[in-house]
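Give me the fold.
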Amino acid sequence: MCVFEYWLLLRDAIVYSYMQTEEGREYLEKCWIMEQTKPDRARLRDKYGRKEG
């Protein structure tokens, strides 16, 4: 097994472990949010409205 396959399996095992608890799911959600690079414009418009100008 190459090191990249090992890392992939380790990552999957860690994610699976976190998915078993509510705290773990919240942590994974926060991680996903931190990875995003583009703004969710629809959600921002719903929360703050459309700025005219």
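DSSP finds three helices and no strands in the chain.
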